[in-house]
Design a protein that fits this description.
5 helices, 0% strand, globular
Length: 134
Amino acid sequence: MDFLAVNWLAIVLATVASMALGAAWYGVLSTQWLAASGRTKEDIDPKDFMPYVWSVIVQLVMAYFLAVLTPPLAGAMTIGHGLQIAFLMWLGFVLTSMILNHRYQGKPWSLTAIDSGYILAALLVQGLVLGLFG
């Protein structure tokens, strides 16, 4: 497996698309997310940009691994395969990890639904974008 033989433009565009989705997702669900996470608007420092930096980094890593793993697992990078592998990665690793961590942390199921729902949507958007570029 050649870890550098990926479409870097597609990975960057998939990252941008998933970040845009995140802005919309949490913009719409901000009230519910604040309540579920036990925070208030005052708890969020508008000058703290580091969560956004980390978001870009991890979204880029997610898109990269989706681009690397889809062809060997599914045979080729297509829209269908990108969506399929994105869903399977979410189901096998993301959802299970969030359930495990949120249950130990005593977080409400609503937080798990909001956060894992976003990651599912983000991975699917990334799979779609990567699949469009083949």
